[in-house]
Amino acid sequence: MIYAFDTYYYEDHANTVCIAFEDWTSEKESEIFTEKTEISSDYESGAFYKRELPCILSLLKKIPLKKGDLIIVDGYVTLDNDGKIGLGGYLYDALEQKYPIIGIAKNGFAAPDSLRRTIFRGESKSPLFLTVKGADSDEILKKVEQMHGPYRIPTLLKKLDQLSRA
Question: Which GO terms describe its molecular function (predicted)?
């Protein structure tokens, strides 16, 4: 199973959503998990994970992960060639490196990262940025390219974004 997570922040709470789907080419989700949580920390530039990681870990308590499952986060797993990690890297460590974590970010990150891949989907001139821990980046890149939908953002990831804001 593939589990994709996104969190949207309101004034007094965070809304975290997970869409589960069977295959990279799936058009529809198998299940949706949601949770509203209190915001545990203010936004801190360069430390986004401090705010979002607790939300994802809390929602993960409702999901029976199994060997072979994959997790997608909206953001980065690795940030640079010096080993700095983003939200996905912290999640990978929090889950004891048992599940591959795939970061799909919409915005670029300035520091060079030899593990980062750029993906152009559909007719878009704007790329998505892929970082991965626990799996091969080039293999995952091919899978993300195959995700359902003709646009830059795959269908299920677009739906995930919309649900987190609802």
Answer: endonuclease activity
